[in-house]
Amino acid sequence: MEDCIPVNQKIEHQELGETGRPWEETVTTSQDPELGLSEALELEQRPETGLQPRSSPPRTPGSGARTPDRPVGDLVGQCSSFPPSSSQELPSTLSPLALARQDFMAPSQSDKTTSVISEAETPHVGHLEQLSDKGGSTPHQICQSEGNTFHQPQQTKYPLHELRDVSHHTSKQKELRFDIFQEDDSNNNYHLDQPESGASEVAPSMLEIAIQNAKAYLLKTSSKSGLNLYDHLSEMLTKVLDERPENAVDIIENISQDVKMEHFSKKLDTLQNENEMLATYEIAEKQKTLFLQGNLEGADQELEDEILTDTHPIQKCRFWGKILGLEMNYIVAEVEFREGEDEEEVEEEDVPEERDNGDSEAYEDDEDELPRPFYRAPQAIPKEESRTGANKYVYFVCNEPGRPWVKLPAVTPAQIVIARKIKKFFTGQLDTPIISYPPFPGNESNYLRAQIARISAGTHVSPLGFYHFGEEEGEEEEEIESGRDSFEENPDFEGIQVIDLVESLSNWVHHVQHILPQRSRIHRLGQHGYPQISFLNMRLQSLDPTFGLEHMPFPMASKKFENLYIGWGHKYSPDSYTPPVPPPVYQEYPSGPEITEMDDPTVEEEQAFRAAQEAAADSTEENEETEEEEDDEDDYD
Amino acid sequence: MDAESLLLSLELASGSGQGLSPDRRASLLTSLMLVKRDYRFDRVLFWGRILGLVADYYIAQGLSEDQLAPRKTLYSLNCMEWSLLPPATEEMETQTSVVKGRFMGDPSHEYEHTELQKVNEGEKVFEEEVVVQIKEEKRLVSVIDQIDKAVAVIPRGALFKTPFGPINVNRTFEGLSLSEAKKLSSYFHFREPVELKNKTLLEKAELDPSLDFMDSLEHDIPKGSWSVQMERGNALVVLRSLLWPGLTFYHAPRTKNYGYIYVGTGEKNLDLPFML
C-alpha cells in the first residue's frame, strides 16, 4: 500500500516526525470528549447507524489489507488519503507509529504480533472507551492507566495548542453530524489540509495515524470467528442505546454474548410458535399423577405399572420392554389378570371368517347353471384362548410414561405366520394399517402383538431350576396337548453361581412356550416342538443374534433375573430381507375329454347318417319329415 | 458424544436402550482423558460400540482443531487400552464389502472369502477360485468410516466456518429452537460436504456461508431414512438412523447438549425400502 505514496512526500514529512507527534496527541485528548459526545448524539438520533459501519467499509489501511472483500477502489482511496501516515514511518522506527506500522503489516501473520503493538494503541483504546463511556458508561480505567505513560509528555504542551484545537472543533462540528465513519473521513481531510494552510504543517497526521492504527487493530478480523472488535463494539453500543437497559454496565457481558449470538441465529420467522414449551408442561402435568398415586419409592417404570395395576384387576405385572417406532415408541407391559376377572374380548372375533360366509352367500343368488368357484380359504386356525399359549399374558402399551395404556388384542396364528414373512417399521400409532406383501390381517396393533409374542417366545429365559412344572398337572397325555402350560416358581431354588450363568448357556432355559411354525400350541396336527422348559444349549452365537436382544439377566443376585427387550422389534438375520416368493400360479384344467370337442360332422357322415335313417324310416313311414328336421338340428348343436 | 460430558450424554441417549455399565463409564471417563493427552487431540468423542460375538469394540475418535479434518479413530476392547486404527481407504471398503454377518470381536480374526479370478494361461482363460483373507481390523475401519460418512450428525450452528477455511466449534451455540429442532433441515452431516456443490445458485443464495457449509440431512436417500422424535415432552429431540440402525443422535433444544452414539452390529440396513 505504501508503494503508491510519492517518495518526495515521504522525505518532506520526515522532519516533522519529532515535533508533530506530541502535538497531535494533544489533539486526541482534546478531541475525545467531543467525539464521544457527537457520536453518542449520532447514535441516539439514528439508532440503526450501528449497522451501517459494517456495510460502509472503514477507511483504515490495516483493515483494508485484512478484509478481502473490500472493493479495490476503496483501497486506492485510502492510499491517496493517507500520505502523511505512511510518510511518518520511514524516519522514526522507534516511534509508536512505526510500531503501529508493523501492525499494518502484521495482521495476516498471527495474533501474537498484536501483543507487540499493543502499547502503541493504548491511547486510542482509551479514546474508544471514552466514547463508549459517553454512550453506555463503560469502565475505561484500565485503558486510561495504560495510556497514561504515553500521554504524559503531551499534557505539558497542551496549552500551546489549545487555541488551535478549539478552532478544529468548531470547524469540525458540522462534519461530525454524518456518521462515525464519515466523521473519521472528515478528520482525514482536515488534517490533510493542514500542511497547505501552513499553520501547523503535517503534525496532526501523527494523531491521525495513531487513530488509524488503533482502528486497524480493532478492525482486525478474528482468525477464529471472522468478526472484528470494532463492529462488535459498535453493535453492542447500538444495542445498549436502543434498549436502554438499567445498569448496563452490569450486563455488558451478556449484551456482548447476545450480539454475538445474533450472528448465528437465523432471522426471526414471521410465524412464531408461541406454545413451544407447552408440550413439556403438559407431559409433566400428566406424569405428576404417576408420582402422586404410587408411593414415592422405586423407579419410574414400576410406578407406571402401578397405575396400570390400579385401574385393572391385575395379578402380575411386568415391564416387558420398549419397541422403537418412527414417530413414537411403545412401552410394553406384560400383564396377567386375576382369576375370573378377564376383560371381555368377544367383540374382536375373527373377522376374516365372517367375510368368507358373506362371499359364499353371495354366490348362492346366482343361477345354478354356472359352476361356483370351489376354492375355499384355508381353514383359519382359531386363536388360543386367553391365558394359554401365546395369549397367556395380556399386553398393554403406551407411547410415553404418563399417557394412557392401550390393551393389545389377542394374537391369532395367522398374524404370527404373516408377521414372520414381513419386516416393517413400527410407526408409533396403533391404528396404522400395515401395507405389506403378503397382506397382514390387521393393523399395527396386531403386528405389534405378533412381534411381542415372537420375541417373548424366542428370548425369555430363566436360570435353570428357577421354574418347575406345576405338580397338579398329572395326566401325561394332556401334557403334550397343552404344552405343559403351567409352571411355577421353584421354592427350593438355591440360585446359581454367577460365573456358571455367564460362562455356560446350558444354565439358561426358555420358560415361554416355543412358537411352532403354525402357532404356539400344538393344534390337532401333532407338530412337536421342543418342550417348553428346555436347555438353551445353543451356541452363544445363536443366542445373541436373535432379535438384536438385550438379554439383561441380573447377575449380581443370582436369585433374581430379568428379561428385557429394547429395540426395533425385528429379527436379526445376516442376510438381507427377501420378500416371500409369490404363491404358485394355479394350473389350468388339463386338456381332457371334458374340454376338447369333436370336429364338426362332414357331409359324408351326414349323408351316411341320413341313409341309415332313411333305412330305418322305411319301417315307420308316417313321421318321416318331422324326424329329419329334428335330426338336423341335433347335429348342429 | 463429547468425552467431557460423557455421563450426561449417555443419559440423554439412553432412550434407545444404549447404555453402558457403571464400570465401563468410569473407565471411559479416565481413559479418554489419557487418550486426549497422549495423542494431543483437541477434542475426544466417544463414538460408540460395535457389538461383536465374543467381545465388543469400543470406539473413540480424536478431533484436531479443524473439526472437519480427518479424524483419528481408536478402538478398545476393555475401555482402558486404546489402539489407533489406520485411516480408511476406498480400497479397504471394496475389499471388505464382501464380508457379511456380524463382527467377531477379535481384531486379528480373518474372514475367508472365495472369489473367482480369471487366470490367463497361454490362450485359455481359466476361472480359478482364490481364497482372500480379510482381517477384521480392516473391516472395522471401513465400517466406522462408512457410518461416519453416512450418518454422523451435527446440529446447524454448532460449528461454523471461519473466513480462512478451518471449521471451529461455535462457542455461542445455545442450541436449536424448538421449532427448528423438529425439522430435519437443521441437522447436518458431520463430514465434508458432497451434495453442496451440486446445488443450484438459487438454492445456495439462501445459505449462510459461515453456517451452511455442510450437507443437510433432509435430502438423504432414501427419503425417510431418519426417525425424528421428541421425547420427554419436547425437552429432548432424538434422531435415529434407519439406514444404520443403532445410531442415535440426541439434542436437548436450547442447550449445548448434542451428540451421537452408535451402538450396533456394524451392518447396514439394506432392507430399508421394504420396512418403510
From TrEMBL, chain A:
Origin species, per record, is Cervus elaphus hippelaphus
Q: Which residues form a coiled coil?
A: none
Q: Does the keyword Cytoplasm apply?
A: yes
The keyword Cytoplasm belongs to this UniProt entry's keyword annotation: yes
Keywords recorded for this protein, A-Z:
Cell projection, Cilium, Cytoplasm, Cytoskeleton
Q: Where is the composition biased (Acidic residues)?
A: 339-353, 359-369, 596-606, 619-637
Q: Where in the cell is it found?
A: Cytoplasm, Cytoskeleton, Cilium axoneme
Q: What is this protein called?
A: RSPH4A
A Gene Ontology biological process in which this protein takes part is:
cilium movement involved in cell motility
Q: Which PANTHER family match?
A: RADIAL SPOKE HEAD PROTEIN 4 HOMOLOG A, RADIAL SPOKEHEAD-RELATED
CDD domains in the cross-refs: DD_CrRSP4-like (cd22963)
> Positions of the region Disordered?
1-92, 129-154, 338-371, 586-637
Identify the Pfam families for this entry. Radial_spoke (PF04712)
GO annotation, cellular component aspect: radial spoke
Question: For this UniProt entry, which segments traverse the membrane?
Answer: none
Residue ranges, compositional bias (Low complexity): 609-618
- List all Polar residues biased stretches: 78-92, 138-154
Compositionally biased tracts (Basic and acidic residues) = 10-24
UniProtKB/TrEMBL annotation, chain B:
Q: What keywords does the record list, in alphabetical order?
A: Cell projection, Cilium, Cilium biogenesis/degradation, Cytoplasm, Cytoskeleton, Flagellum
The signal peptide here is none
**One GO BP annotation of this record:** axoneme assembly
Question: What superkingdom does the record give?
Answer: Eukaryota
- Entry's family note: Belongs to the flagellar radial spoke RSP9 family.
Main location per the UniProt record? other
Any idea what this protein is called? Radial spoke head protein 9 homolog
Q: Where in the cell is it found?
A: Cell projection, Kinocilium; Cytoplasm, Cytoskeleton, Flagellum axoneme
A GO cellular component term found in this entry reads: axoneme
